[in-house]
Design brief:
Elements: E1 7-12, H1 16-33, E2 36-41, H2 47-56, H3 66-75, H4 79-88, E3 97-102, H5 106-117, E4 120-124, E5 137-141, E6 152-155, H6 164-177, E7 185-189, E8 197-198, H7 201-217, E9 221-225, H8 232-242, E10 248-252, H9 262-268, E11 271-275, H10 279-287, E12 291-295, E13 298-299, H11 303-316, H12 328-340, E14 345-346, H13 354-358, H14 371-383
Parallel strand pairs: 1-2, 1-3, 3-4, 4-5, 5-6, 7-9, 7-11, 9-10, 11-12, 12-14
Antiparallel strand pairs: 8-13
Length: about 375
Protein backbone atom coordinates (compact mmCIF):
# COMPACT_ATOMS: atom_id res chain seq x y z
CA UNK A 1 0.00 0.00 0.00
CA UNK A 2 1.11 3.55 -0.76
CA UNK A 3 1.21 5.56 2.48
CA UNK A 4 2.17 9.09 1.37
CA UNK A 5 -1.34 10.19 0.36
CA UNK A 6 -3.85 10.77 3.17
CA UNK A 7 -6.41 13.29 1.82
CA UNK A 8 -8.09 13.49 -1.62
CA UNK A 9 -10.16 16.61 -2.27
CA UNK A 10 -12.56 16.59 -5.23
CA UNK A 11 -13.56 20.00 -6.57
CA UNK A 12 -17.02 19.45 -8.03
CA UNK A 13 -18.41 21.79 -10.70
CA UNK A 14 -21.82 20.12 -10.73
CA UNK A 15 -21.62 18.19 -14.01
CA UNK A 16 -22.58 14.55 -13.47
CA UNK A 17 -20.17 13.08 -16.02
CA UNK A 18 -17.23 15.09 -14.70
CA UNK A 19 -18.02 14.05 -11.14
CA UNK A 20 -18.13 10.39 -12.19
CA UNK A 21 -14.62 10.73 -13.60
CA UNK A 22 -13.16 12.34 -10.49
CA UNK A 23 -14.95 9.97 -8.11
CA UNK A 24 -13.64 7.01 -10.06
CA UNK A 25 -10.00 8.11 -9.84
CA UNK A 26 -10.44 9.20 -6.20
CA UNK A 27 -11.95 5.81 -5.30
CA UNK A 28 -8.91 3.92 -6.58
CA UNK A 29 -6.49 6.38 -5.00
CA UNK A 30 -8.24 5.77 -1.69
CA UNK A 31 -8.25 1.99 -2.24
CA UNK A 32 -4.51 1.99 -2.86
CA UNK A 33 -3.53 4.37 -0.05
CA UNK A 34 -6.24 4.36 2.61
CA UNK A 35 -6.67 8.11 2.09
CA UNK A 36 -9.97 9.78 2.90
CA UNK A 37 -12.02 11.63 0.26
CA UNK A 38 -13.70 15.00 0.61
CA UNK A 39 -15.89 16.72 -2.00
CA UNK A 40 -16.24 20.50 -2.29
CA UNK A 41 -18.56 22.37 -4.68
CA UNK A 42 -16.93 25.22 -6.59
CA UNK A 43 -18.86 28.50 -6.98
CA UNK A 44 -21.48 28.76 -9.72
CA UNK A 45 -20.48 31.66 -11.93
CA UNK A 46 -22.88 33.01 -14.54
CA UNK A 47 -23.14 35.61 -17.27
CA UNK A 48 -20.46 38.23 -17.74
CA UNK A 49 -18.76 37.35 -14.46
CA UNK A 50 -18.31 33.74 -15.59
CA UNK A 51 -16.85 34.82 -18.92
CA UNK A 52 -14.52 37.36 -17.32
CA UNK A 53 -13.19 35.12 -14.54
CA UNK A 54 -13.01 31.77 -16.37
CA UNK A 55 -12.22 32.85 -19.92
CA UNK A 56 -10.31 36.13 -19.57
CA UNK A 57 -8.71 36.41 -16.12
CA UNK A 58 -7.99 32.67 -15.91
CA UNK A 59 -5.48 33.01 -18.76
CA UNK A 60 -3.05 34.72 -16.39
CA UNK A 61 -3.23 31.95 -13.77
CA UNK A 62 -0.58 29.77 -15.39
CA UNK A 63 2.20 31.95 -13.97
CA UNK A 64 0.45 34.02 -11.31
CA UNK A 65 1.89 34.81 -7.88
CA UNK A 66 0.30 33.66 -4.63
CA UNK A 67 -1.25 37.09 -4.07
CA UNK A 68 -2.65 37.16 -7.63
CA UNK A 69 -4.10 33.67 -7.12
CA UNK A 70 -5.81 34.81 -3.92
CA UNK A 71 -7.29 37.84 -5.65
CA UNK A 72 -8.67 35.73 -8.50
CA UNK A 73 -10.08 33.23 -6.01
CA UNK A 74 -11.84 35.89 -3.94
CA UNK A 75 -13.16 37.68 -7.06
CA UNK A 76 -14.56 34.31 -8.21
CA UNK A 77 -16.38 33.70 -4.94
CA UNK A 78 -13.97 31.01 -3.80
CA UNK A 79 -12.70 32.60 -0.60
CA UNK A 80 -14.77 30.19 1.48
CA UNK A 81 -13.06 27.26 -0.27
CA UNK A 82 -9.69 28.52 0.88
CA UNK A 83 -10.94 28.95 4.45
CA UNK A 84 -12.41 25.45 4.43
CA UNK A 85 -9.29 23.77 3.06
CA UNK A 86 -6.99 25.73 5.35
CA UNK A 87 -8.80 24.15 8.29
CA UNK A 88 -8.51 20.69 6.70
CA UNK A 89 -4.78 21.09 6.18
CA UNK A 90 -4.04 22.65 9.56
CA UNK A 91 -2.91 19.28 10.85
CA UNK A 92 0.08 19.24 8.52
CA UNK A 93 -1.44 17.19 5.69
CA UNK A 94 -0.24 19.49 2.89
CA UNK A 95 2.37 17.09 1.55
CA UNK A 96 -0.12 14.22 1.76
CA UNK A 97 -3.03 16.04 0.07
CA UNK A 98 -4.11 16.09 -3.56
CA UNK A 99 -6.71 18.26 -5.34
CA UNK A 100 -8.69 16.57 -8.10
CA UNK A 101 -11.09 18.06 -10.66
CA UNK A 102 -12.57 17.60 -14.13
CA UNK A 103 -13.90 20.34 -16.39
CA UNK A 104 -13.22 23.93 -17.38
CA UNK A 105 -15.06 25.49 -14.42
CA UNK A 106 -13.26 23.64 -11.63
CA UNK A 107 -9.78 23.58 -13.20
CA UNK A 108 -8.82 27.19 -12.36
CA UNK A 109 -9.95 26.70 -8.75
CA UNK A 110 -7.84 23.55 -8.54
CA UNK A 111 -4.84 25.41 -9.90
CA UNK A 112 -5.01 28.44 -7.61
CA UNK A 113 -5.93 26.53 -4.46
CA UNK A 114 -3.09 24.10 -5.05
CA UNK A 115 -0.63 26.93 -5.56
CA UNK A 116 -1.82 28.88 -2.49
CA UNK A 117 -1.89 25.84 -0.21
CA UNK A 118 1.18 24.14 -1.64
CA UNK A 119 -0.54 20.85 -2.50
CA UNK A 120 -0.46 18.73 -5.64
CA UNK A 121 -3.08 19.19 -8.34
CA UNK A 122 -4.73 16.69 -10.70
CA UNK A 123 -6.87 17.71 -13.68
CA UNK A 124 -8.97 15.40 -15.84
CA UNK A 125 -9.44 16.45 -19.47
CA UNK A 126 -7.66 19.47 -20.94
CA UNK A 127 -8.80 22.84 -19.52
CA UNK A 128 -9.42 24.96 -22.61
CA UNK A 129 -7.98 28.19 -21.23
CA UNK A 130 -5.05 27.18 -19.02
CA UNK A 131 -4.05 23.82 -20.52
CA UNK A 132 -2.40 20.95 -18.64
CA UNK A 133 1.14 22.32 -18.09
CA UNK A 134 0.47 24.05 -14.72
CA UNK A 135 -0.83 20.85 -13.10
CA UNK A 136 1.18 18.15 -11.40
CA UNK A 137 -0.88 15.42 -13.08
CA UNK A 138 -3.18 15.59 -16.12
CA UNK A 139 -5.37 12.69 -17.24
CA UNK A 140 -6.56 13.28 -20.79
CA UNK A 141 -8.44 10.96 -23.19
CA UNK A 142 -6.57 9.84 -26.29
CA UNK A 143 -9.20 11.37 -28.57
CA UNK A 144 -8.15 14.82 -27.32
CA UNK A 145 -4.66 14.00 -28.66
CA UNK A 146 -2.72 15.44 -25.69
CA UNK A 147 0.88 16.41 -26.21
CA UNK A 148 3.42 13.99 -24.77
CA UNK A 149 4.63 15.20 -21.38
CA UNK A 150 5.79 13.68 -18.10
CA UNK A 151 2.74 15.09 -16.29
CA UNK A 152 0.20 13.72 -18.82
CA UNK A 153 -1.46 10.29 -18.98
CA UNK A 154 -3.51 9.53 -22.11
CA UNK A 155 -6.51 7.26 -21.45
CA UNK A 156 -8.64 5.22 -23.84
CA UNK A 157 -12.04 6.73 -23.16
CA UNK A 158 -12.95 8.49 -19.94
CA UNK A 159 -12.29 7.26 -16.37
CA UNK A 160 -15.50 6.59 -14.48
CA UNK A 161 -17.01 5.56 -11.17
CA UNK A 162 -17.91 2.05 -12.29
CA UNK A 163 -16.40 -0.33 -9.72
CA UNK A 164 -16.61 -3.88 -11.19
CA UNK A 165 -16.62 -5.61 -7.78
CA UNK A 166 -19.66 -3.58 -6.67
CA UNK A 167 -21.75 -4.13 -9.79
CA UNK A 168 -23.14 -7.50 -8.67
CA UNK A 169 -24.70 -5.81 -5.63
CA UNK A 170 -26.22 -3.11 -7.86
CA UNK A 171 -27.59 -5.82 -10.14
CA UNK A 172 -29.36 -7.51 -7.23
CA UNK A 173 -30.87 -4.17 -6.19
CA UNK A 174 -32.16 -3.64 -9.72
CA UNK A 175 -33.82 -7.08 -9.82
CA UNK A 176 -35.47 -6.30 -6.48
CA UNK A 177 -37.05 -3.19 -8.00
CA UNK A 178 -37.73 -4.76 -11.42
CA UNK A 179 -38.09 -8.55 -10.95
CA UNK A 180 -37.04 -10.97 -13.67
CA UNK A 181 -37.49 -14.70 -14.01
CA UNK A 182 -35.31 -14.92 -17.10
CA UNK A 183 -32.20 -17.05 -17.31
CA UNK A 184 -30.42 -14.19 -19.07
CA UNK A 185 -30.85 -10.44 -19.19
CA UNK A 186 -29.59 -7.83 -21.67
CA UNK A 187 -29.19 -4.12 -21.02
CA UNK A 188 -29.95 -1.29 -23.46
CA UNK A 189 -28.46 2.18 -22.86
CA UNK A 190 -30.01 4.80 -25.12
CA UNK A 191 -28.46 8.25 -25.40
CA UNK A 192 -29.93 11.22 -27.24
CA UNK A 193 -29.47 14.18 -29.52
CA UNK A 194 -26.17 16.07 -29.58
CA UNK A 195 -24.46 18.48 -31.97
CA UNK A 196 -23.34 15.48 -34.02
CA UNK A 197 -25.97 12.76 -33.47
CA UNK A 198 -29.70 12.24 -33.63
CA UNK A 199 -31.82 9.51 -32.04
CA UNK A 200 -35.28 10.01 -33.49
CA UNK A 201 -38.52 7.97 -33.36
CA UNK A 202 -37.67 6.16 -36.60
CA UNK A 203 -34.31 5.02 -35.21
CA UNK A 204 -36.02 3.77 -32.03
CA UNK A 205 -38.68 1.89 -33.97
CA UNK A 206 -36.17 0.13 -36.25
CA UNK A 207 -33.24 -0.56 -33.93
CA UNK A 208 -34.85 -1.10 -30.55
CA UNK A 209 -37.60 -2.94 -32.40
CA UNK A 210 -34.97 -5.35 -33.76
CA UNK A 211 -33.54 -5.91 -30.27
CA UNK A 212 -37.05 -6.61 -28.97
CA UNK A 213 -37.54 -9.33 -31.58
CA UNK A 214 -34.14 -11.00 -31.07
CA UNK A 215 -34.41 -10.97 -27.27
CA UNK A 216 -38.00 -12.25 -27.31
CA UNK A 217 -37.11 -15.15 -29.61
CA UNK A 218 -34.33 -16.22 -27.25
CA UNK A 219 -36.26 -15.81 -24.00
CA UNK A 220 -34.07 -12.97 -22.77
CA UNK A 221 -35.24 -10.19 -20.45
CA UNK A 222 -34.52 -6.58 -21.41
CA UNK A 223 -33.59 -3.71 -19.10
CA UNK A 224 -33.79 -0.41 -20.99
CA UNK A 225 -32.96 3.13 -19.92
CA UNK A 226 -32.71 6.45 -21.73
CA UNK A 227 -30.68 9.61 -21.30
CA UNK A 228 -31.80 13.07 -20.27
CA UNK A 229 -30.87 13.99 -23.85
CA UNK A 230 -33.38 11.55 -25.34
CA UNK A 231 -36.10 13.52 -27.11
CA UNK A 232 -39.72 13.31 -26.00
CA UNK A 233 -40.76 11.94 -29.39
CA UNK A 234 -38.17 9.15 -29.12
CA UNK A 235 -39.31 8.38 -25.56
CA UNK A 236 -42.93 8.20 -26.73
CA UNK A 237 -42.14 5.65 -29.47
CA UNK A 238 -39.95 3.64 -27.08
CA UNK A 239 -42.84 3.35 -24.63
CA UNK A 240 -45.21 2.48 -27.46
CA UNK A 241 -43.16 -0.43 -28.84
CA UNK A 242 -42.30 -1.87 -25.41
CA UNK A 243 -45.70 -1.47 -23.74
CA UNK A 244 -47.02 -4.98 -24.41
CA UNK A 245 -43.67 -6.78 -24.32
CA UNK A 246 -43.64 -8.97 -21.22
CA UNK A 247 -39.92 -9.68 -21.52
CA UNK A 248 -39.12 -5.95 -21.13
CA UNK A 249 -38.49 -5.98 -17.39
CA UNK A 250 -37.64 -2.28 -17.16
CA UNK A 251 -38.02 0.75 -19.39
CA UNK A 252 -36.79 3.64 -17.27
CA UNK A 253 -37.25 7.07 -18.86
CA UNK A 254 -34.49 9.29 -17.47
CA UNK A 255 -36.39 12.56 -17.97
CA UNK A 256 -39.08 11.35 -15.53
CA UNK A 257 -37.11 9.19 -13.11
CA UNK A 258 -34.09 10.49 -11.17
CA UNK A 259 -32.75 7.01 -10.40
CA UNK A 260 -29.55 5.91 -12.11
CA UNK A 261 -30.09 2.30 -13.23
CA UNK A 262 -26.87 2.02 -15.25
CA UNK A 263 -24.71 0.36 -12.52
CA UNK A 264 -27.49 -2.15 -11.91
CA UNK A 265 -27.83 -2.91 -15.61
CA UNK A 266 -24.08 -3.37 -15.90
CA UNK A 267 -24.09 -5.70 -12.91
CA UNK A 268 -27.09 -7.79 -13.91
CA UNK A 269 -26.95 -8.08 -17.69
CA UNK A 270 -24.65 -10.36 -19.67
CA UNK A 271 -24.74 -8.19 -22.79
CA UNK A 272 -24.94 -4.43 -23.02
CA UNK A 273 -26.18 -2.51 -26.07
CA UNK A 274 -25.04 1.10 -26.04
CA UNK A 275 -25.60 3.95 -28.50
CA UNK A 276 -22.51 5.65 -29.85
CA UNK A 277 -23.31 9.26 -28.88
CA UNK A 278 -21.90 9.24 -25.34
CA UNK A 279 -18.20 8.71 -24.61
CA UNK A 280 -18.84 8.37 -20.88
CA UNK A 281 -21.66 5.84 -21.33
CA UNK A 282 -19.48 3.66 -23.58
CA UNK A 283 -16.57 3.88 -21.15
CA UNK A 284 -18.81 2.82 -18.26
CA UNK A 285 -20.21 -0.13 -20.20
CA UNK A 286 -16.76 -1.37 -21.23
CA UNK A 287 -15.40 -0.97 -17.68
CA UNK A 288 -18.07 -3.40 -16.46
CA UNK A 289 -16.26 -6.26 -18.16
CA UNK A 290 -19.43 -7.40 -19.95
CA UNK A 291 -19.86 -7.97 -23.70
CA UNK A 292 -20.67 -4.52 -25.11
CA UNK A 293 -22.34 -3.92 -28.48
CA UNK A 294 -22.11 -0.53 -30.19
CA UNK A 295 -25.34 0.78 -31.71
CA UNK A 296 -24.75 3.27 -34.50
CA UNK A 297 -27.18 6.21 -34.64
CA UNK A 298 -28.00 8.90 -37.17
CA UNK A 299 -25.38 11.56 -37.95
CA UNK A 300 -26.49 15.14 -38.34
CA UNK A 301 -25.65 16.87 -41.60
CA UNK A 302 -24.63 20.44 -42.25
CA UNK A 303 -21.48 22.41 -42.89
CA UNK A 304 -19.76 21.26 -39.67
CA UNK A 305 -20.07 17.59 -40.58
CA UNK A 306 -18.85 18.29 -44.11
CA UNK A 307 -15.81 20.19 -42.85
CA UNK A 308 -15.11 17.42 -40.35
CA UNK A 309 -15.23 14.82 -43.12
CA UNK A 310 -12.83 16.85 -45.24
CA UNK A 311 -10.47 17.13 -42.26
CA UNK A 312 -10.66 13.38 -41.70
CA UNK A 313 -9.69 12.82 -45.34
CA UNK A 314 -6.68 15.09 -44.97
CA UNK A 315 -5.65 13.23 -41.80
CA UNK A 316 -5.96 9.86 -43.54
CA UNK A 317 -3.78 11.19 -46.35
CA UNK A 318 -1.15 12.23 -43.79
CA UNK A 319 -1.54 15.87 -44.82
CA UNK A 320 -2.79 16.87 -41.36
CA UNK A 321 -1.88 15.35 -37.94
CA UNK A 322 -4.46 13.47 -35.86
CA UNK A 323 -5.11 16.35 -33.46
CA UNK A 324 -6.84 18.28 -36.27
CA UNK A 325 -9.76 15.86 -36.06
CA UNK A 326 -12.82 17.41 -34.40
CA UNK A 327 -16.48 16.80 -33.60
CA UNK A 328 -17.85 13.40 -34.61
CA UNK A 329 -14.57 12.31 -36.19
CA UNK A 330 -12.56 12.92 -33.04
CA UNK A 331 -14.88 10.75 -30.94
CA UNK A 332 -14.95 8.16 -33.71
CA UNK A 333 -11.21 7.76 -33.21
CA UNK A 334 -11.89 6.63 -29.62
CA UNK A 335 -14.64 4.23 -30.67
CA UNK A 336 -12.44 2.68 -33.36
CA UNK A 337 -9.69 2.16 -30.77
CA UNK A 338 -12.14 0.37 -28.46
CA UNK A 339 -13.33 -1.84 -31.32
CA UNK A 340 -9.78 -2.61 -32.44
CA UNK A 341 -8.83 -3.62 -28.89
CA UNK A 342 -11.79 -5.98 -28.59
CA UNK A 343 -13.73 -3.97 -26.01
CA UNK A 344 -16.66 -3.25 -28.35
CA UNK A 345 -18.57 -5.24 -30.96
CA UNK A 346 -19.91 -2.96 -33.68
CA UNK A 347 -23.48 -3.69 -34.76
CA UNK A 348 -24.07 -3.38 -38.52
CA UNK A 349 -26.63 -0.97 -39.91
CA UNK A 350 -28.59 -3.92 -41.35
CA UNK A 351 -30.63 -5.21 -38.40
CA UNK A 352 -31.34 -8.56 -40.11
CA UNK A 353 -27.73 -9.51 -39.35
CA UNK A 354 -28.02 -8.84 -35.63
CA UNK A 355 -29.35 -12.17 -34.38
CA UNK A 356 -26.32 -14.19 -35.41
CA UNK A 357 -23.83 -11.53 -34.26
CA UNK A 358 -25.44 -11.03 -30.85
CA UNK A 359 -25.41 -14.72 -30.00
CA UNK A 360 -21.77 -15.20 -30.96
CA UNK A 361 -19.39 -16.05 -28.16
CA UNK A 362 -17.84 -12.78 -27.02
CA UNK A 363 -14.87 -12.90 -24.68
CA UNK A 364 -15.38 -11.15 -21.36
CA UNK A 365 -13.26 -8.07 -20.74
CA UNK A 366 -13.59 -7.90 -16.93
CA UNK A 367 -10.55 -6.39 -15.16
CA UNK A 368 -8.85 -5.65 -18.47
CA UNK A 369 -10.25 -2.15 -18.93
CA UNK A 370 -10.35 0.25 -15.99
CA UNK A 371 -8.99 3.67 -16.83
CA UNK A 372 -9.83 5.14 -13.41
CA UNK A 373 -7.72 2.51 -11.67
CA UNK A 374 -4.90 2.88 -14.21
CA UNK A 375 -4.97 6.64 -13.69
CA UNK A 376 -4.74 6.26 -9.91
CA UNK A 377 -1.84 3.83 -10.21
CA UNK A 378 -0.03 6.22 -12.55
CA UNK A 379 -0.48 9.17 -10.16
CA UNK A 380 0.98 7.19 -7.28
CA UNK A 381 3.89 5.90 -9.33
CA UNK A 382 4.76 9.45 -10.37
CA UNK A 383 4.11 10.73 -6.83
CA UNK A 384 6.75 8.42 -5.39
CA UNK A 385 9.45 9.21 -7.95
Amino acid sequence: MYSDLSLIIILNEGIRGHLSQTRGVAHWLAELTGARIKEIKVPDLAGWRRFWQLKVKARSLRNCSISECKKWLIDSGGGVLLDDLTVDLATGEKKQCILLSAGNTSAPFTLVLGRILGVRRVVLMTPSVIGTDPFDFAIVPEHDFPKSNDNVLATLGAPNFIIPDELEKKGKELVHDFPSGDSESWGVLIGGDTANYSIDPEWIRINIGALLEVSSSRGVGLYITTSRRTSQDAERVLEEITEDREHVRMNLIASRDSRNPVPGILGLCSRIFCTEDSVSMLSEAVTSGKAVFLLRVKKKGGVKILLGKITQGLVKADILPLYFLWGFYRFEYMRRRLIENGFLVEMPIETDKWSELITMSVRQMRAEFNEAKRSAEWILEEWNK
